[in-house]
Here is the input.
Amino acid sequence: MEHADSAQLAAIVGALGAVASLTARGRVTLLAGLMLLTAAELGLVLALGAGSLDQLLSPAGAGAAAVGAALLGGAAWLLVRRPALAPLAVLVAAPFRPPIEFDAGSGLLVAIARDGALGRLLPLYFVLLAAALALAWRALRGEPVRALPRAIALPAAAFFAFACLSLAWAEDVEAGANLLVFFTLPFALLLTVVARSQFPPRLPRELGIAGVGLAALFAAVGLWQAATHELFFFAPNLQVSNANTDYFRVTSLFGDPSLYGRHLVLGIAVLLAVLAAGRVKPWLGIGLLAFLWAGLLFSYSQSSMVALVVITLAVAAVAGDRGTRRAVGALAAVALLAGGGLLAAKLVTGSSLNQLTSDREQRVADTVRVIVHHPLAGVGIGGQPRASRLAAGSERPTPNFVSHTTPLTVAAELGTLGLGLYFWLLLGGARAISGVRGRDEGLGLALGAAFVALFVHALFYSGFLEDPLTWVVLGITAGWLAHREAQLSPAERARARRAAREPAPAAS
Here is the structure.
């Protein structure tokens, strides 16, 4: 990478911005954090060579920039007037990746992606920028800045900062800089703006409707694709696979069946939670579950099916009575025994573990080799695929070495230090969600089910930390708790903090 030093300097600025914005207790610190995050993003874009503005000096470029600025200003004005819309807008925008790619040779710096490819999270970036401008303006005009719950703010700030700083020793600086530009820094901003939004009583219901509605939309498109055998977006290997197998995997509005499956599982998780909490009519909830399950079936995603089983058992165990929990335990034991027996039978008949796991076993082995050689601080953000390929001495394309297992990727790229921060984030998120459940059963169950689904799915497929919905869940959790605490008297606040430290009571 030609400007590696500039990228590493920008990453340091980004680390400072993430810490300041997430731990701020006053407007000066918050505004400084937002400014540092913006400066880091611009610095990394320039270091990557994607920051030429010559095209914007043309009439077409200037016109497009003016229209974009007007739309951004209008969106920011709306979010200043109605800050509670920010979490809802972020949730709706998060899944969509229009088929637009950056093209420095284009007059508008963008071009339409081809051959079934998808682009970046452009709708989400637009919403985040508008929400950040609105948050900054609200802070400037004197609105109080709420402190976020430490259970989420501290581990998230530490993880973001360490991930940014790891670019200093990254083996693949360009890949790491790309991750920082398109995922890490935007998601630090996402957590900041969602958690510092307003959370009126109606918002959880609106978020639930939006989440399930999106899943239903994706399922409808997936079922149409299953009936017509026409895909909108797809990876080249999926096109080959569909042409040579008896079954046809669909992608809906995503580029991969497993990503499509993940979003349906999240919708099912929310439905299971609100059904268990009695927040939706049974006939409606069961009908929607059947529809989402039908759409999920045609993804043929093993990782999504595993996540679905886990969250179903988890919701039943948490929300059910003692008899239900015993039944769940028995079912889990039977499932483990049956799965182990089936795996053993396949191995005995000559199938290889790597074949049965769709190449996962070899990817894991290559990643573990990297962890052994770089145990403390890893190979730096974004470096795991390249480091695995070099460790294996292979000439195959680098994307073939992505581990598809988030804890292993974190251990390889950030070492045991980063892995510890990752587990701290998981524990902090679980603790905060438990605090939400102690005050609102339906919302807490829905957030917990979604968090578990994202975690389990990412054990078999990439994307826990790189999925904006992970940070949406944490942002809603932190924001709801912070907003709720701000409404309490000092005595009530002290009691609520004590209650948040205790586990939510189980159903009898």
